[in-house]
User: Fold this.
Amino acid sequence: MKIQVDQNLCIGDGSCVMIAAKTFKLNPDGKCYILNEELGPEEKSADGMVKSPATETMDARDIILEAARACPVQALRLYEDDGTEIKV
Assistant:
């Protein structure tokens, strides 16, 4: 699974962090980022997107799905490894 966070949409609600604390955290600006040892809290593309594959250190798939469903502004998007979007 691949995870994408749109920091332009993120309002810092923190529900994703409460549900999937091994996968998401809020950066100093209050925006969600993905906990990946290779990515820092400031790593994002010019369009505000933070992307990462799921890793073994992250929460289980069903927990990540629950976190995406809980986002009040739908800033989290999930994709299968083949690029198909997972509807949450």
The longest helix spans residues 61-70. Residues 44 and 50 are 5 Å apart (CA to CA). The mean pLDDT is 90.
